[in-house]
């Protein structure tokens, strides 16, 4: 639909249509399904890239990284990182039920001597790639990799804005 009307509408309206018609399907429960089959995720990413080219009125073979940055739109993998980071922010600030909080423990609870990483989340060793993709492991790894200035932001909305800006500007 967007492809057929792209010449009659301005760029900001096309971007709004993207966020109305396409982004909800990519965004919904991305934290859960985006660790699945890389083949399926790649197919969705190709569809997202095609939509970005249409929204930006670019050629079919245009490089999409600058287009994502220009339109301030996150890729599927970046959106996954954002959702996991927001979930970990909620965990870290006790904004989730205790079931989720009990999934994670900090290093200071595992060993009692002080280290530089004692406030980071403990990452259990795992033998399989499937286990590494679980939220328990990937969430802790992502949270531990964040800068302390982003982790200590006072509100979730500010955290989300800063981390999204970091993801967009990282490429």
Q: How would you characterize the overall build of this protein?
A:
This protein is mostly helical. The protein folds into 2 domains: 2-73, no CATH class; 79-169, no CATH class. The chain is built from 13 helices and no strands. Helix 7 crosses helix 11 (135-145) and helix 7 packs antiparallel against helix 13 (156-169). The protein starts with a helix and ends with a helix.
Provide a short characterization of the protein structure.
With 171 residues, the protein is mostly helical. The chain has helices at 2-5, 11-21, 23-27, 30-33, 38-55, 65-71, 76-92, 98-101, 107-110, 129-132, 135-145, 148-151, 156-169. The protein folds into 2 domains: 2-73, no CATH class; 79-169, no CATH class.
Detail the topology: elements first, then pairings.
Elements: H1 2-5, H2 11-21, H3 23-27, H4 30-33, H5 38-55, H6 65-71, H7 76-92, H8 98-101, H9 107-110, H10 129-132, H11 135-145, H12 148-151, H13 156-169
Give descriptors for this structure:
13 helices, mainly alpha, 0% strand, elongated, 171 residues
Biggest sheet layout: none
Based on CA inertia axes, which overall geometry fits?
Answer: elongated
SS elements, strand count? 0
Give the overall average pLDDT: 88
Compute the number of structural domains. 2
From the N-terminal CA to the C-terminal CA, the straight-line distance is 29 Å
Poorly predicted segments: none
**DSSP strand (E) fraction?**
under 5%
Q: Structural class given helices, strands, pairing?
A: mainly alpha
Helical segment tally? Answer: 13
Q: Whole-number radius of gyration?
A: 19 Å
Helical content band: 55-70%
**What sequence of helices (H) and strands (E) makes up the elements?**
HHHHHHHHHHHHH
């Amino acid at each position: 639909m967007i492809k057929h009307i792209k010449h009659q509408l301005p760029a900001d309206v096309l971007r709004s249509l993207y966020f109305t018609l396409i982004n909800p399907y990519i965004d919904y429960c991305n934290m859960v399904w985006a660790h699945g089959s890389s083949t399926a995720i790649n197919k969705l990413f190709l569809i997202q890239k095609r939509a970005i080219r249409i929204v930006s009125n670019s050629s079919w073979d245009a490089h999409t990284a600058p287009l994502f940055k220009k339109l301030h739109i996150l890729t599927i993998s970046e959106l996954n990182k954002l959702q996991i980071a927001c979930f970990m922010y909620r965990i870290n600030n006790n904004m989730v039920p205790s079931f989720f909080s009990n999934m994670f423990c900090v290093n200071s609870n595992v060993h009692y001597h002080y280290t530089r990483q004692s406030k980071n989340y403990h990452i259990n060793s795992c033998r399989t790639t499937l286990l590494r993709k679980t939220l328990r492991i990937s969430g802790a790894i992502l949270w531990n990799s964040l800068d302390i200035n982003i982790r200590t932001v006072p509100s979730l909305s500010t955290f989300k804005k800063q981390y999204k800006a970091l993801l967009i500007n990282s490429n």
